[in-house]
Amino acid sequence: MIFEFRNIAWFLGLIVAQIFFIDYLDFGIYSSYFSPIIICFFILKMKLDTTVINLLIYAFFLGIITDVFRNTLGLNTSVLLIITFLKPTFLNSISSKEDIENDVELNMFTMGFLRYLLFFGISIFTYHLLFFLLEQFSFNNLLILFLRAIVNTISALLFLVFLQYLFIFKK
Distance between CA 167 and CA 129 in Å, rounded? Predict the structure, then answer.
């Protein structure tokens, strides 16, 4: 699959938005709870006919670049690779493969808003949950971990809906 210009723009745009905008938002004492991660959108939005090997390569480079800038020692890379493997499972849990065309990018305009919220919500929640679990490397304060994952998933979904209305045009 040729890495077309639109994918390059999304790849770089999500990295820039994550590193230079979202990571610098300051909410005072609540900043420790608010750190949404939106880079997984790139992997989740890829067409269904994209090979797993290509997805894993994209996930690896996306994760490594983000880890270098966020100083997270491979956390984003490892969780992004896990999410890449789980993507078909998440997609099959909300609909059958026949419901979605193989050559269409997954976004809220092609999937429908409810399926978009379910698929991306489950995926991004899992991303945040695994990220925070690996970050604290303990099951202590599991309720706080779930709260952080929920808050960051909701804020990431809101930000991604905003980005999609800005940059993805309905056909």
Answer: 28
What's the CA gap between 115 and 106, in Å, rounded?
A: 10
Cα dihedral angle (15, 5, 52, 169), rounded to 10 degrees?
80
Task: Spell out the SS3 assignment of 11-55.
Answer: HHHHHHHHHHCHHHCCCHHHHHCCCCCCCHHHHHHCCCCCCHHHH
Q: 38-77: per-residue pLDDT in tens?
A: 999 999 999 888 888 999 999 999 999 999 998 888 899 9
Gap between the Cα atoms of 74 and 160, Å rounded: 23
Q: Which pTM does this prediction carry?
A: 0.89
Tell me how crowded residue 57 is: count the other CB atoms within 10 A of its CB. Answer: 13
